[in-house]
Design brief:
eleven-stranded antiparallel sheet; 155 residues; mainly beta
Length: 155
């Protein structure tokens, strides 16, 4: 939407699904907004989806910013309707341990009934020129140990 006089950012989004592009009985729409101030961003979103015997509402909120040297993010979301799942929540963080290296960690819980919590710890390391080596190991919400290693290119 714009920038306030003191440089804070306000962003809004909205979408609607054209029923003619899918099942005639399907209707969905979403709306969200975020506000950035003093190095912190807060955001919230609401969505609704309806179809033959299916009626769901989704809510979510996020907060991200910096505490000391750590960049942190928090998330919470809920679904009301047919599935009526538990509240989902999570947090993640990144701490620099050198000029080009960060340690990252994440945790998520709740969500669909019967899922376990998920967590991981990893790293990012800038190789220069917009290239970053990244990797993480953790446990998925089904209890499996998972790992990844890759390269990200930002040009």
């Amino acid at each position: 939407l714009g920038t306030t006089p003191n440089g804070d950012d306000i962003i809004g989004t909205a979408t609607i699904t054209d029923p003619s592009s899918c099942d005639d009985d399907f209707e969905a729409w979403e709306i969200g907004a975020s506000y950035t101030f003093s190095g912190w961003t807060i955001g919230a979103a609401y969505a609704s989806a309806e179809s033959d015997g299916f009626d769901e509402e989704y809510y979510s909120a996020t907060v991200s910013g910096t505490i000391g040297i750590a960049d942190v993010s928090f998330f919470i979301g809920d679904t009301d309707g047919v599935t009526d799942d538990d509240v989902a929540y999570g947090l993640s963080g990144s701490v620099p341990v050198g000029a080009a290296t960060n340690i990252v960690a994440s945790y998520a819980g709740g969500g669909a009934d019967g899922l376990e919590d998920a967590f991981g710890i990893g790293f990012t390391h800038s190789l220069g020129g917009g290239v970053t080596l990244t990797g993480m190991v953790g446990e998925s919400n089904s209890g499996n140990t998972i790992a990844d290693l890759g390269v990200i290119f930002n040009f």
